[in-house]
Structure formats: structure tokens, C-alpha cells
Design brief:
The complex is a heterotrimer of chains A (328), B (291) and C (551). With 291 residues, chain B is mainly α. Chain B contains ten helices and no strands. The radius of gyration of chain B is 24 Å and the shape is flat. The longest helix of chain C has 30 residues, at 2-31. Chain C is globular and about 75 Å long. Classes of the chains: A mainly alpha (328), B mainly alpha (291), C alpha+beta (551).
Chain lengths: 328, 291, 551
């Protein structure tokens, strides 16, 4: 009974989230000065006359009021139809479907790498606080935080693809090769540079927060006590610190799942990697409401699951939290 | 000969034992140094003449010289002037955006941890809500709606970046909440507000500081992307974010000075904040000094 | 417990990553399509990943992907060769109009009826013959597609016989010919919702595979009725500009489009080709004084730019050569009109510029006075100051705006450059100067910008310019029944000796430069004689792709 009521409450939360997110996103687009027609026509704005613009407006149903448009969209959604994207002139479901798996592969790899490396660096820096290692790691992280993703991508591109010629220059598949001849190894090769770009930059927050946490833990009373008892080194950290220290890292890791849809934009741009990031920004800039809302829905689902997993992890890591009871 | 050796040893020893360089004083010195440096930087930027910002096509694309210590860009503008003025401009954006973001995150994080399950549920829901919209997208939309400019960028960045930090803080609070001395305070009847400010706040200050330091350059870079869309500050005014972003185009063309100097300057500024922050903390929390 | 959780987590992640990589493969396969007819040909190229080494193949990185596919009825192919489809008429390399699918065309006396006869020997790549019905279908579909293809002027299109088509227009319009040049013909029997992703046509190339946002692979069409391309397979890569340069350096492409700023790079085995264009940049001035409003309440007019002395002075003072040298690194030409070099250009419109003294004289004659403390000229209470807006995302326009600002300052005119988003530009363009840019292979553009009929209509003639004599010439041009007759009138509208829409006349614009499109081209590749390129990089270079060959 308890489980069912908990499940129901979670589902309720998810639904309220979805509704709220959709309404807010829709309202934001409506309130902004973006003119989807102008955005759609783009560079040809000079060649398209007033009557044709009128036609385009009617064709996409944009001459109706905001409320009407939303209701129309919501109605279709309930029947399982996410609508048609103005930019791609294809069903939204197809657009997202096409790009989703590519995004997923890229983001998972980057996510795991930045998590592991970030955590490791954070631990190391705190353990050797104020030493050269610590200083270097801190400088490294702050430098990364101030580095535009685009740069990092270009840099890696120039080093690995141009200078060393080890890796391909872009895309998710080799140039000029037919789909049936593309191997898994090819896909992996094309994944490496964008994943590296994202991992390297994603390391900074996790490393720094972890470092801070471990420093705090190391200066606590019980660690002092443990040191007095003769414990030292990594064993000390492992036995007393690791679980606690993992908490901010875990939090950030799962919070960064939302980056899956937004953060990869610049990396996708540099490497022409076909992910959802660019599509989401384009949808926003060009007022492509169905696509925007479709992506936002997916994003919500992901984030929700991510946070749920994080909460479960907290309980695993620190039993006191379980006792203190989290939400629901 | 032996005499000098002895004297050297003596001096070295007594220098230390004279105690004039204890930890407390080094900390203070570090803070003063960093603050002075920052003020000098920003002060110079404020009082510098505008001439270097004019385009002079004949002087374009020059690598660093005495007259132009940071070189010139593709329009012949002096990079040194641009960088300093840019830091000043970005400083404002970065500070306000990060501080706002951090304040929101901290407040909500603490509220979530201390005011009971219902409040926690609401805050967690809000966090999920804000995290659900891809943050670049959210930033663009919010800036658009607010009409862009300084206001649009600052509010946009603040509103889209508080969630992760809020979650970190919330998790910290949840941990703290169940520790013994908090329980004791509760038993003794202290109010939530008292516990929050006296016990919890000091503990999360380090994480908050880290959050702020990470947010500052992040906000600046985001301001650049918004400006490229025509929404942020005017694209012709130098802001470090813009300078960095524009310079990436010229990296491939080999004009390294356009990127390195502004990048290092930004880094330096962030680092100065770090020095201030860390040392300030040390002063306020002596327990970290027992190494 | 911690350890177990870790293990489970890692295992889960490995499974998910593996699944997504394979899933990525499946998804990619399902969205890239191949035609059955050319499968055999395609399979013979299985082992090549670097087609630069293979003389039969070409790899290009010249433009951005077309988001919505390759359907001419929604706008594909209007900028160059549509690759897969053929058009009724075409341009040759000197921009003369020649027949493609058409064997001849004629226009009625009243200019309303256009009759086109087409070849009888053309078939689509699936073997079906192309007839007049396909042409009718294409134009009807395009008209109603709610896309960038503007066929408002077309009233009716029908097939008179199997190989003759008749177009009825609502009004005389000699620029309709442009539609016949840019609209690829689609096969009625297979055109449906999925057509854009796997097009079939009668053009020189056959569609093989499209990896969205990444690449397009095509093979030559063995049944093409015209000159066969010299390459078996062409791959188009959609790369960001900096990435395209990197790809060129890594030896992975035969042609890469690069911005002028990169043109000084030395890349092994590649040479720089700078193509002349009519891709122009210029300043649009609001022509009327302030005070009016559009129907939507947007402010119209600017008192400073409405003064002809200001506009002419700026035109005369700007040093266009310096702009080309300094901003475009020499890759460009000065622009005096929006149609420099095209068949309908009037060469008399060229003026002497970079003349500060002359410019000052013009201002003083116009009633402006110097002497103010801030160095800005005054006319009564009016300050010689106005905003110059440019799209913030465009670095070249920004550079031009800033350079012009600093060049004009000594004159006593204070220009204030501001970067804006396109949406804001639309709202501000009637009351402020804007740095615009375009250039097309049709004089219709000139009409849209300068005709009083087009004042404030959408974003046409944003400055509210009008000159009755100019209007008259342009109407006559539209009503002309031959191309040459039309050209003569277009030229008169620019400058007829007394008045005109160019800098010598009313100077409603200050045109600055024509960009050159810069490409890195494989040393061994001959890309034939390139026509003057329009606004919109990339596709136009492929217009004569059938002539390309290895040296």
C-alpha cells in the first residue's frame, strides 16, 4: 500500500512538472519578440512577398491566438501526436528520434568520464591540499570554467584530427561511406573528440565541489580523532570520508543530466555531430513551438528520472538521510 | 666563512621564530593583495582613455609590441584597452548574475532542508522545473522576453543556473540535519531560523563559495552567447565574453594573442576572487588551520 | 553494499552506452536512404573512406545542411543547381539565359501568358518519362506549399499538350523568368511526404544517402540527358567553417568554403579560389523624416538620414577600397549598387569615393555647420547623429559598421553602431540606418527595394524610398517582353542622366562592398568558369559542377 501511494505521488509530481514546463515554455515563446514566420523564411526575407507570408502563417496555424494554438497542441499530444516541426517539416517525433540516440551515446560517455575524472581529481587535490598538485588542479579547473566549449573543441580538433591525424574531423559517421558499411568502431572513433571536449570541461564543477567537501571532512573532529589513532593516507579517506564526499559529486552528476539536451550545443556545432542540443536552440530561436515543446517534454522526463536516481543514491550513501526521510 | 654560515642559519631561524609571519597574517596579506590587485585592475580600466577602442584598419592583426602589449585585432583595435575595459564590463555582469544565482540557490537550499517536508517537496519540484528546460534554451527565452540588455542577461543567467547549486546545498543540509549537534539544538528548543543561520550556514559557506567562483566566468561566457544573438550588451562594446568568443574564429588563422591574453586576464580575475574567498574563510574558521 | 551498488551501476552504464551506440547505428540506418536503382554502383565503392585519393570521387565542405530536405516545391535548389532535379531554363556561366528542360519559351503581348515547350527525351532516374503534367504538378504544389517559394504572381498553370505548358500570371512580371530558372521539376508519380528525404528527379545526380546535419552522398545519373558529370560520386559534408578549414588541412576534403579571414592560410595541395559575387553589403537609410508610423505602430523616418546631403556625403566619404582591404583582407570589390556586374547593371553608377573634402563641401552646401565643441555638425537644432544597426551575429557586418563609423567621424557625423537580433531589426529598420546585405540573380530584388509600391511592405523598401520616375522605369522593365528590353529599363532606373536610385541620384543607400567567396580547392581540381555568385554561399559554386574535372 505504502509503495503504491509513493508511486502514485511520484507520478503525480511528474505530471504536474510536465504540465508546468509546457505551459511556461509556451508562454515564454509567446511573450518573446520572436517571429516564427520571419525566422522560418530567414535569408530569403527579401524574396517573399506580403501575401506569401500570410499564406505561410495560415499554413502553420500561426494566425490563431496563443491560447488556441496551445489547446490545439495539447489535444494532439494526448492522442500521442507531437505535431510537426516547422524547421524540418517532419513530425516532431521523427526529428527527436533521429537525433536522440546520437545525443545519448555522446552524453553518456562524456557524463561518465567527467564524473569519474572529476571525482578523482577532487579527491586528489583535497588530499594534497596546498601542495603543487592541489594548485595545479585548482588552476586547471578554474581555467576550464573560463574556457568556451567551442574553443576546447577546436583545440582538440586541431591537435588530434589535423596535426596528429588520428581521429576524424567531425560528424558521427565517416565521410562518403554508405550506412551499411559503417562499423561500430567507426562510430566510436567519431564519438571520441566531442566526448572529450565535453568531459574535459565538465570535470571542473565536480572536481572543485568534491575537493571542498573532502577538505571539510578532513578537518572535522572525527577525522582528527582517527588521525590521532594513527590512521592515515587513503585508508583514512576511504573509511571515513568517501561516502560523505560522494554526496555533492553525485548531486552534480545527476543534476547535469539536464545538460544532455542543452550543454552539447557548441560541441555539436564544431563537430557537426547530429545531436538534440542544436535542434533545441534552433527551435527556441526560430519559434518552432511543436519541436520546442517536444524536446522540453523529453528533457523533463530525463531530469526527473535523474533526480530520482540521485535521491536513491543519497540514501545508499548516507543512511542517516534515510532516517531523516527525504521528500515523499 | 663559517661566521657567515652561522649568521645565515641564525637569521633564517629567528625570522621564523620571530613569529611575524604566522598563518593569520599571511592570510590577511593575501586578501589585501588580491583586493588591491582587483581594484587596481578595475580602476585602470575605468580611467583609461577610449582611443584604443577605435578601429584603425592600418594597424590590424599585429602581434604584441611595446605600444600594443596585447597586440591588435582584425580592426586594428588595441587589445590591451579592450581586455581591460572588457573585464570591467564583464565584472558587473558576472558579479550580479552569480551573486543572485548563489543567493537564490542558498536560500532555497536551506529552506528545503530546514522547513519541513512540505517545503522541501515544493522546492524540489521547483528545482526539477527549472532543470527540465535545457539551460541554454531557457537562457535565450528568458533574455528574449526581458528584452535583452544587461537586465535580460543577468536575470536569465541567474534564473537558469541556481538549480544545481541548490541541489548541492539541499543535500548538504539533509546530511547536517541528522547530525548530533543539530538534534541537540532542536531538543533544546532552538527555532529553525536560529539553527539555519548559526549552525548550517557556516558549514555550507565553502560549497557556496565554490559555486560562486564557478558561476562567475560561466555567466560571462553565457553573456557572450546572448550578445551574439543580438540580445545582450551591444556587440561593439568590449565584454570579455565577447572578446573570447570572437577570438576563437581567429585561432585557426594563427592569431593566438587574441585569445591568450584576454583568457589569462579573466582567469587571473577569477583566481583573485578565489584567493579572497579562501583566505576570508580561513580567517573566520580557524578550525581549518589545524593541519 | 557500497561496492555492490557501484558494480551494478557500472554494469548498467556499460549496457546503456553499448545499447545507445548500437541504437545510434540503427537510427542512422533508418534515416539514411538509398535508391534501389543505383545500389550496384554504390556498392562498388565500399572500401573508400577517404575519397580524396580516388579520382572518381569528390568531397566538398561548402555549405550548411538544408533542414527540410531536397524538395523543390518547398524551396530546395533555388540557389544553384538542384542536383537531383532539372529546371526549365538555366543560366550559363555569363548569366545568359539558356534552355535546360525547355526547348523554347515565349511570352504573350500582354505579358500575362508564358508558354514553354519541353524536351521529349527526358526521363526521371527511375525510368519514367518527364511530361508537361509533371511541370504543372510541380508549380501547383509549390504555390500551395506555404514555404519560401513565392508564386503569388502565378494565377494558373496547365498542360496544353504532353510537352507544352502554359502559365497565366495575375500581372505582368518579366522577373517570372527567374522562377522558371530556379524551380526543379518533381515527378508527380512519386511525390509524397517522404520525397524531401529521398528525392528522385531528372537532374545530373542521383540521391544515394543523407545523414542529416552531417553529409549528403550522390552519384552521377547515367541517364542524364545533358552533359554527364566527370565524377562517379560526390559527397557533401556539412561542417562548421572552422571545422571545414581543419578538414582541408587534414586532407579530407577537395573543396572547403572558408571566411576571408582564413584566406592567408597555407594548406598543402590546395589553392585559394576567390569567386566574384554580388553578395553585397550596404547601409540602408530611412528616406523620410520622422513622425510617421506603420499600421502596426512602428516608427517610420529619421530626420538626419532623410537629408540628402548626409546620404551623399557618406557615399562620397567612405573609402571602399580600404574597407575591402581592411575588413575583407582584399577579398572583395567596392560596391556602388546592389547589382554590380550583373547584366542589368548600369556602369555609370560608379562614383569617386574616399573624398573627405568633397563630402564636407556637400554637407556645408546642404546647410550643415561645423564648430560645435563635440565636433558633430549641426543644422539648426539637429545633430548629425544617427544609429547604424547590424545583425549582432554577423562579424563581417559588425566590422563594416565599426569601420565606417570610424571613417566617417572626422567628417563631423556621429554614427552609433548597435548590434541587434533580427527580430528587433524588423521593428527598428524603418527609423534607423541598417547594414543589410544580399544580392540575387534577379532584378526583382531591385524592384522590391526601391519601388514605392513596396514601401514598408514586410521588410521591402524599409526606408520608404520613392521616386516616381524610378517607379516608371521599373514598371516598364517588368512589362518588357524580352530580357534585354527589361535590362535597359532597369539600368535607366539606376541612373538616366538626371535622376536615379543610385548614389549619383537620390542615394537612398550607401552600398559598400561586394564580398568574394573564398574557397580552398584541391590543386588538381578544375572548377571551370564560375559565374558571379549571388548572396548565399556554397550551393552556387556547384551550379556548373558538370564541367568540373581533374587537371
Amino acid at each position: 500500500m505504502e509503495i503504491i501511494s509513493r508511486l502514485l505521488r511520484k507520478i503525480f509530481r511528474l505530471l504536474t512538472l510536465l504540465v508546468a514546463v509546457c505551459i511556461i515554455s509556451f508562454m515564454l515563446i509567446q511573450l518573446s519578440p520572436i517571429d516564427p514566420i520571419a525566422a522560418y523564411i530567414g535569408a530569403d526575407i527579401m524574396l517573399v512577398g506580403e501575401e506569401q507570408r500570410q499564406k505561410i502563417t495560415e499554413y502553420w496555424g500561426l494566425d490563431k491566438s496563443g491560447f488556441e494554438q496551445f489547446v490545439h497542441w495539447a489535444g494532439a499530444l494526448v492522442q500521442g501526436d507531437l505535431g510537426t516541426s516547422m524547421i524540418y517539416r517532419m513530425p516532431v517525433m521523427d526529428v527527436i528520434g533521429d537525433k536522440f540516440f546520437a545525443s545519448l551515446a555522446l552524453m553518456l560517455v562524456a557524463w561518465v568520464l567527467s564524473g569519474i575524472i572529476g571525482f578523482g581529481l577532487g579527491l586528489w587535490a583535497a588530499y594534497k591540499q596546498d601542495s603543487w598538485v592541489d594548485k595545479i588542479i585548482k588552476w586547471y579547473c578554474y581555467t576550464l570554467a573560463a574556457t568556451p566549449t567551442f574553443w576546447m573543441g577546436l583545440l582538440l580538433l586541431m591537435v588530434f584530427a589535423v596535426w596528429l591525424n588520428w581521429l576524424p574531423v567531425g560528424m558521427s559517421v565517416p565521410a562518403g561511406v554508405l550506412a551499411e558499411n559503417v562499423s561500430v568502431l567507426d562510430r566510436l572513433k567519431h564519438l571520441i573528440l566531442p566526448a572529450m571536449t565535453l568531459s574535459i570541461i565538465g570535470v571542473a564543477p565536480i572536481a572543485l565541489h568534491t575537493r571542498q567537501k573532502l577538505i571539510d571532512v578532513l578537518s572535522s573532529e572525527y577525522v582528527l580523532f582517527a588521525k590521532a589513532r594513527g590512521e592515515s593516507g587513503f585508508a583514512l579517506i576511504r573509511r571515513h570520508g568517501l561516502r560523505n564526499v560522494a554526496i555533492p559529486a553525485v548531486t552534480l552528476q545527476f543534476a547535469s543530466l539536464s545538460e544532455l539536451f542543452g550543454g552539447a550545443v557548441l560541441a555539436e556545432q564544431v563537430f557537426s555531430y547530429p545531436g538534440l542540443g542544436q535542434a533545441s536552440v534552433e527551435a527556441g530561436l526560430r519559434g518552432d513551438v511543436p519541436l520546442l515543446l517536444g524536446i522540453v517534454i523529453f528533457s523533463t522526463l530525463f531530469v526527473f528520472s535523474g533526480n530520482l536516481l540521485a535521491d536513491i543514491f543519497y540514501q545508499l550513501l548516507d543512511p542517516r538521510i534515510r532516517r531523516g526521510r527525504l521528500t515523499e | 666563512m663559517k661566521q657567515t654560515q652561522l649568521m645565515k642559519n641564525f637569521n633564517r631561524k629567528s625570522w621564523r621564530s620571530r613569529g611575524s609571519w604566522n598563518k593569520r597574517q599571511t592570510t590577511l596579506l593575501a586578501i589585501i593583495f588580491a583586493v588591491v590587485f582587483l581594484v587596481a585592475l578595475l580602476g585602470t580600466a575605468l580611467t583609461m582613455p577610449d582611443d584604443g577602442l577605435r578601429s584603425q584598419l592600418e594597424l590590424r592583426n599585429m602581434s604584441p609590441t611595446i605600444e600594443h602589449p596585447f597586440g591588435t585585432d582584425w580592426l586594428g583595435r588595441d587589445m590591451f584597452t579592450r581586455t581591460l575595459k572588457g573585464l570591467l564590463l564583464s565584472f558587473g555582469v558576472g558579479m550580479i548574475a552569480s551573486i543572485s544565482s548563489v543567493v537564490i540557490a542558498t536560500t532555497l537550499g536551506i529552506m528545503a532542508g530546514t522547513l519541513g517536508r512540505y517545503v522541501d517537496a515544493v522546492v524540489a519540484w521547483l528545482i526539477d522545473l527549472f532543470l527540465s528546460v535545457p539551460h541554454l534554451l531557457g537562457l535565450i527565452l528568458i533574455s528574449f522576453v526581458l528584452g535583452g540588455g544587461f537586465k535580460g542577461v543577468v536575470i536569465g543567467v541567474a534564473l537558469t543556473h541556481w538549480p544545481s547549486l541548490a541541489r548541492v546545498i539541499r543535500a548538504e543540509i539533509l546530511q547536517l540535519r541528522s547530525s548530533e549537534y543539530i538534534q541537540v539544538s532542536r531538543q533544546l528548543g532552538k527555532s529553525s531560523w536560529w539553527i539555519a543561520t548559526k549552525h548550517m550556514l557556516p558549514h555550507i559557506v565553502p560549497q557556496v563559495l565554490v559555486g560562486f567562483l564557478l558561476m562567475f566566468p560561466h555567466a560571462i561566457l553565457h553573456e557572450a552567447s546572448i550578445t551574439f544573438l543580438g540580445l545582450g550588451l551591444s556587440a561593439s562594446e568590449p565584454a570579455i565574453g565577447i572578446i573570447l568568443s570572437e577570438s576563437m574564429r581567429y585561432l585557426s588563422a594563427g592569431m593566438w594573442w587574441l585569445a591568450i591574453f584576454p583568457g589569462l586576464s579573466l582567469l587571473l580575475m577569477v583566481r583573485m576572487f578565489d584567493v579572497i574567498g579562501e583566505n576570508l574563510r580561513l580567517m573566520l574558521e580557524p578550525q581549518h588551520a589545524h593541519k | 553494499m557500497m561496492r555492490k551498488a557501484k558494480v551494478v551501476l557500472v554494469a548498467l552504464l556499460v549496457v546503456i552506452v553499448g545499447f545507445s551506440i548500437i541504437g545510434c547505428g540503427k537510427a542512422s540506418q533508418s534515416d539514411s536512404s538509398s535508391t534501389t536503382a543505383t545500389n550496384q554502383l554504390a556498392n562498388s565503392n565500399q572500401n573508400n573512406t577517404e575519397s580524396v585519393n580516388n579520382k572518381d570521387e569528390l568531397v566538398l565542405a561548402v555549405f550548411a545542411d538544408t533542414d527540410d530536405g531536397f524538395d523543390p516545391t518547398t524551396g530546395w535548389g533555388r540557389y544553384g543547381s538542384p542536383l537531383f532535379q532539372s529546371t526549365l531554363l538555366a543560366f550559363d556561366n555569363s548569366l545568359n539565359i539558356t534552355n535546360d528542360l525547355a526547348t523554347k519559351y515565349s511570352v504573350s503581348e500582354d505579358g500575362l501568358t508564358w508558354t514553354v515547350e519541353i524536351r521529349k527525351d527526358v526521363s526521371f532516374s527511375d525510368g519514367v518519362t518527364l511530361t508537361a503534367n509533371d511541370v504543372v504538378y510541380t508549380f501547383e504544389k509549390a504555390k500551395n506549399s506555404g514555404s519560401v517559394v513565392d508564386l503569388e504572381v502565378l494565377a494558373n498553370v496547365k498542360a496544353i499538350s504532353d510537352y507544352t505548358v502554359e502559365f497565366q500570371l495575375h500581372s505582368k512580371n518579366s522577373t517570372f523568368i527567374n522562377t522558371l530558372i530556379t524551380t526543379g521539376i518533381v515527378p508527380q508519380h512519386v511525390h509524397n511526404a517522404g520525397y524531401a528525404e529521398r528525392p528522385i528527379g531528372s537532374g545530373p545526380f542521383v540521391f544515394v544517402q543523407w545523414d542529416k546535419g552531417q553529409q549528403l552522398i550522390v552519384n552521377k545519373n547515367p541517364n542524364y540527358y545533358g552533359k554527364q558529370p566527370n565524377f562517379q560520386k560526390v559527397t557533401f559534408l556539412y561542417l562548421d567553417q572552422s571545422t571545414a578549414l581543419a578538414a582541408a588541412k587534414a586532407g579530407q576534403v577537395d573543396i572547403a568554403a572558408i571566411p576571408a579571414a582564413f584566406a592567408n592560410q597555407k594548406v598543402e595541395n590546395m589553392r585559394i579560389e576567390a569567386l566574384q559575387t554580388v553578395d553585397n553589403r550596404g547601409i540602408m537609410f530611412p528616406y523620410v523624416p520622422s513622425g510617421q508610423q506603420t499600421a502596426d505602430g512602428i516608427a517610420v523616418g529619421n530626420d538626419v538620414t532623410a537629408d540628402i546631403a548626409i546620404r551623399k556625403a557618406i557615399n562620397v566619404a567612405v573609402d571602399r577600397e580600404l574597407l575591402v582591404e581592411g575588413v575583407l583582407e582584399g577579398y572583395g570589390t567596392p560596391a556602388y549598387t546592389m547589382v554590380d556586374g550583373l547584366p542589368w547593371w548600369n556602369p555609370d553608377t560608379v562614383i569617386y569615393d574616399a573624398d573627405m573634402q568633397q563630402a564636407k563641401a556637400i554637407l556645408l552646401e546642404g546647410g550643415w555647420q561645423e564648430g560645435a565643441a563635440d565636433g558633430i555638425m549641426r543644422k539648426g537644432s539637429l545633430k548629425a547623429e544617427f544609429k547604424l544597426l547590424y545583425p549582432a551575429s554577423d562579424p563581417t557586418r559588425q566590422a563594416l559598421a565599426l569601420a565606417v563609423t570610424d571613417l566617417i567621424r572626422p567628417l563631423g557625423i556621429n554614427i552609433i553602431p548597435e548590434g541587434k537580433s533580427w527580430d528587433e531589426l524588423y521593428k527598428l529598420m524603418h527609423a534607423n540606418a541598417v547594414l543589410f546585405g544580399w544580392g540575387a540573380h534577379t532584378p526583382l530584388e531591385m524592384y522590391n527595394l526601391y519601388s514605392s509600391e513596396m514601401q514598408g511592405s514586410g521588410s521591402y523598401n524599409a526606408g520608404f524610398y520613392s521616386n516616381p520616375q524610378v517607379d516608371k522605369y521599373m514598371e516598364q522593365a517588368l512589362a518588357a517582353t524580352t530580357a534585354n528590353e527589361a535590362y535597359a529599363y532597369w539600368q535607366k532606373a539606376q541612373w538616366d542622366g538626371t535622376t536615379g536610385l543610385s548614389a549619383k541620384g537620390d542615394a537612398p543607400w550607401a552600398w559598400l562592398v561586394n564580398l568574394e567567396h573564398v574557397y580552398l580547392v584541391n590543386e588538381q581540381l578544375d572548377i571551370g568558369e564560375q559565374r558571379i555568385q549571388p548572396h548565399g554561399h556554397g550551393w552556387p559554386i556547384t551550379a556548373n559542377i558538370a564541367e568540373w574535372q581533374w587537371r
